[in-house]
Write a structure and sequence with these properties.
single chain, 2 helices, six-stranded antiparallel beta sheet, alpha+beta, lipid metabolism, 148 residues, Thiol Ester Dehydrase, Chain A, globular
């Protein structure tokens, strides 16, 4: 069951094509946990150069996809509604397997800590139940200045 679709996601976070990577949200417990999905397709522009003949999703884009899922979780928390989340740091990022076209990337994010204007989350991106990337992300939350 889908909790949020692409349109609802874009109403919440400022990311747009070609850098809006979350297709839908499967599970959302505001302020606690989110599970989201990214369908990795050969149509992604980065596959043309990363790498020709051996397409692999860049690690930095896996982190960005996790950050987008985390920002949905954070911005759905009651104290952060209507604000914008900015990635502040990435700690302990580990890449455990390659992500390729045709993979379904499941993103699980858990809130570890919240303060007045920041949040810390743990993240796991997995393919077929196997971790592809894990990381701890820190966000700074500020008033929204742009119109979405």
């Amino acid at each position: 069951m889908r909790v949020m679709d692409a349109q609802e996601i874009m109403a919440l976070i400022p990311n747009r094509y070609p850098i809006c990577y979350i297709d839908y949200v499967d599970v959302l417990e505001p302020g606690t946990r989110i599970v989201a999905t990214k369908n990795v397709t050969i149509n992604e522009g980065y596959f043309a150069g990363h790498f020709p003949g051996n397409p692999v999703m860049p690690g930095v884009l896996i982190i960005e996809t996790l950050a987008q899922a985390a920002s949905i979780l954070i911005l759905k928390s009651p104290e952060f509604l209507g604000k914008t989340a900015y990635l502040g740091s990435v700690k302990n990022a580990r890449f455990r397997q390659m992500v390729r076209p045709g993979d379904v990337l499941k993103l699980e994010v858990k809130m570890v800590k919240k303060r007045a204007n920041m949040g810390i989350v743990t993240t796991v991106a997995s393919v077929a139940g196997q971790p592809a990337c894990t990381a701890e992300l820190m966000f700074v939350v500020e008033e929204r200045t742009e119109k979405i």
